[in-house]
Amino acid sequence: MAKIGLFYGSTSGVTEELAEKIQGEIGEEICDLHSMEEDFDDVEDLLKYDYLLLGCPTWGAGEVQNDWREPLFDMEIDKPDFSGKTIALFGPGDCTGHGKHFVGALGLMYDQFTALGANIVGSVSTDGYTFEKSTAIRDGKFVGLPLDEVNESEKTDQRIADWLEILKADFPLE
Ligand SMILES: Cc1cc2nc3c(=O)[nH]c(=O)nc-3n(C[C@H](O)[C@H](O)[C@H](O)COP(=O)(O)O)c2cc1C
Predict the structure, then answer these.
(1) Residue 34 domain-assigned (yes or no)
(2) CATH number of 84's domain
(3) How far is CA 164 from CA 43, 61, 90, 172, in A?
(4) What is the pLDDT confidence band of residue 174, given thresholds at 50, 70 and 90?
(5) The domain containing residue 31 runs over which residues?
(6) pTM here?
């Protein structure tokens, strides 16, 4: 088992591609890739790792993507202990078509895993993003990495590269 577990949910395949790209940048030998739909049985799958990268696109109006819904609901009830776990969040959204709820899922994930004791790292400056509103901002920064394959796919590679640089402070990336 690699040191980092990357878990993602994806309805139309965008987050799946982003997750594969991120794993490719980090290296398969240190990062295992898991689809929430196909590979996730229960929270123990997450708790096997001390370092987690969690990918969740935003659907509905600022809601988490379907594959995360039930696991997050179960965790809210069972309250598994994530203290000692280091988590970084990423997820795509649509800053124009859904600019009032831009990447809201990241905020929901942040609140839930923080409440369970996790240390969430990898916040990102809002500079360079255009959107109307987002519930994924804490202390003036996004709680994770927002990506936008609908409007700004040309920025994705650089955004991922910059984020991985930030994560080096807290993740065993080298
Ligand atoms: C019906 C619908 C609702 C959406 N709601 C939001 C939203 O509230 N906020 C946002 O930033 N993006 C929203 N999006 C954009 C998706 O997050 C974006 O298309 C994402 O890339 C989908 O990722 P996936 O293919 O991995 O599921 C929505 C898209 C659709 C089709």
Answers:
(1) yes
(2) 3.40.50.360
(3) 25, 28, 11, 11
(4) confident
(5) 4-167
(6) 0.98
What the block records as the tokens of 166 is 């930030």
**pLDDT band for position 66 (50/70/90)?**
very high
b/e map of 55-74 (b: 16 or more CB within 10 Å)? Answer: bbbbbeebebbebbeebeee
111 — pLDDT class (breaks 50, 70, 90): very high
Nearest CA to ligand 1 atom 28: 59
Q: Which atom of ligand 1 is nearest to the CA of 9?
A: 26
Atom of ligand 1 nearest to the CA of 17: 26
Q: How many domains does the chain have?
A: 1
Closest Cα to atom 31 of ligand 1: 59
* CA torsion through residues 33, 39, 40, 41, sign: negative
131 in contact with ligand 1, CB cutoff 6 A: no
